[in-house]
Amino acid sequence: MIHLATEPTPMHGRTKHCPSPGCLSATVGARHLAVGLVLLAAVTAAPAGEPAAATAVPGDASTSAAKPAIETPQPAAGDKAAADPIEIELNRLEPGKDACRPYLVFRNRGDAALAAFTLELVLFDGEGFIKQQFTLDAAPLPAGKTSVKLFEIPGVDCTAIGRILLNQVTACAGADGALPDCMARIRASSRVPVDFFK
Questions:
Q1: Long-range contacts of 151-155 (CB under 8 A, 24+ apart)
Q2: What is the value of pTM for the model shown?
Q3: pLDDT at res. 180
Q4: What fold is seen in the domain 81-197?
């Protein structure tokens, strides 16, 4: 037999007791229900619009600070000139009839062919005096290729040449027009006792 009971009510200053265990269980359940309703009312009465506190999870991308973007440095003009040199080597001086024939080896290590490439050279004798100034047209210079150019200096004995100065580049252009950094790209060297420099 199930006994149903309600909250004890006062009777002439005294409390009515439940006479059985079933009555006591029903009374405790009613009290728990009342407490739950009070808590629910408190939550419902919380201020509207108040944000709930977020719990950060380690390693969660949504709570991590944004990292600054890393910019890739662009190569400077000097770096590009060093990476794409135009090597010019004085390889040989061949005596001719009333002339001297220098052999120059060109290596264009860039990725663009040179359609125009003119150099101004100055000859010095063994004592450092200027003997002659002239221009040399060495074009074309294909990209990534080695080329040999032979030219003749009339009226000059090869043994009278002490040094050869690459004074300036008077013309330097590719398929898209003039190239301003040609002088910086040149690497001059010599395999003979005569110095070739810029």
A1: 151/101, 151/102, 151/104, 152/96, 152/99, 152/100, 152/101, 153/99, 153/100, 153/101, 153/102, 153/123, 154/98, 154/99, 155/98, 155/99
A2: 0.59
A3: 83
A4: Immunoglobulin-like (2.60.40)
